[in-house]
Amino acid sequence: MSSEDILRLYASYPFQTDDAYQQGLASLLTGLSTSQSPEDKELFLRRSRVFYFNRVTGNSITLDQAQQAEQTFTTDSHNQGISATSESTGSTSSQNEAQATEEVQSLTFAQLQELIAAGRLDEIPNNKIIPDKLNEEQASLSSAPARKKPWEIAKTSEDNTP
């Protein structure tokens, strides 16, 4: 496959309909600061798309190549039909991903209760799985001296009086 074919494949990859990508992105976006500039957010999203694309396809494109592919092939995609996902949704990927972020971050109590009852714990944002076992590491030794009791402190001050 030529590098141009790989870049076309990247530009036409259905990130919006790939469930694994969307779940990973949702978990990443929960930690993303809302005060970031649109350029920083777009760079973050591009990095996530490049990482996922390289991982799934076994290719290794760079961020610069991805940006070039997005600019080159997405403008052509409306004419040639390469990016069907952009045309079918009628919005950009950053808008879809921003909507997914808002949905994940604003769970109501009822939604949270429903996810727990259905056993879909992996869909709860910032849900960490804590192992149900004790720490198997050896306890550390205390290096601080034991604190003196009030009567021990009074006894020492009486001994020091002339």
From TrEMBL:
Regions of compositional bias (Low complexity) in chain numbering: 83-94
Bias (Basic and acidic residues): 149-162
Positions of the UniProt region annotated as Disordered: 67-102, 135-162
Peroxisomal membrane protein PEX14-like KPWE domain sequence ranges: 105-152
Domain PEX14-like helix-turn-helix: residue ranges: 4-71
PANTHER family for this protein: CHROMOSOME 10, WHOLE GENOME SHOTGUN SEQUENCE, PEROXISOME MEMBRANE ANCHOR PROTEIN PEX14P N-TERMINAL DOMAIN-CONTAINING PROTEIN
Name recorded for this polypeptide: Uncharacterized protein
Species in which this protein is naturally found: Amanita thiersii Skay4041
